[in-house]
Amino acid sequence: MTYQPFWFDSAINEEAAAPFHLLPQGHHTDVCIIGGGFTGLWTAINIKQQHPTKKVTIIEQGLCGQGASGRNGGAMLTWSTKLPSLIKLVGLDNALFLVKQSELAVHEISAFTKEQGIDCDCRIDGCFYTASNRAQLGLLDNALDCLDQFKLNSWQKCTAEQLLQTGSKQNLHAHFSAHGGSIQPAKLVRGLKRVAQQMGVDVIEHCRYKQHHGHEPINVTTNQGALVCNTLIFAVNAWLPTLQSQFSRSVVLVSSDMIITKPIPDVLEQLKLNHGSAIIDSRTFVNYYRSTSDGRLMLGKGGNFFSYGNKVHPKFDQPSHYKKLLNSSLAHFFKGHELPIERTWTGPSDRSATGFPFFGHLNAHPHVLYAGGYSGNGIVQSYLGAKILSAMVLNNNPQWQHCGLVNQPLKQFPIEPIRTAGAYIVRNAIRRKELAEDLNLQPHKIDCYLDKLSGSAAKVDTQSLR
Question: Is residue 201 part of a domain?
Answer without folding.
Answer: yes
